[in-house]
Amino acid sequence: WHNHLNPAINRDPWTEEEELALIRAHQIYGNKWAELAKFLPG
């Protein structure tokens, strides 16, 4: 999906679990979004 949006992306509000996963991953990887995305489903 390089240069295109994936139509299967989950557009529901974030769960608390997803929010915490992002915070933890950001503490490790900083703003490396390719790495952060690996921790988030959808």
TrEMBL record:
Domain (HTH myb-type): residue spans on this chain: 6-42
CDD domains recorded: SANT
Originating organism: Nymphaea colorata (pocket water lily)
Short name of one Pfam family: Myb_DNA-binding
Gene3D superfamilies: Homeodomain-like
Segments forming domain SANT: 12-42
Domain spans labelled Myb-like: 6-42
SUPFAM superfamilies: Homeodomain-like
Listed name of the protein: Uncharacterized protein
PROSITE patterns named in the record: HTH_MYB (PS51294), MYB_LIKE (PS50090), SANT (PS51293)
One term under GO cellular component: nucleus
MF (Gene Ontology): DNA-binding transcription factor activity, RNA polymerase II-specific; RNA polymerase II cis-regulatory region sequence-specific DNA binding
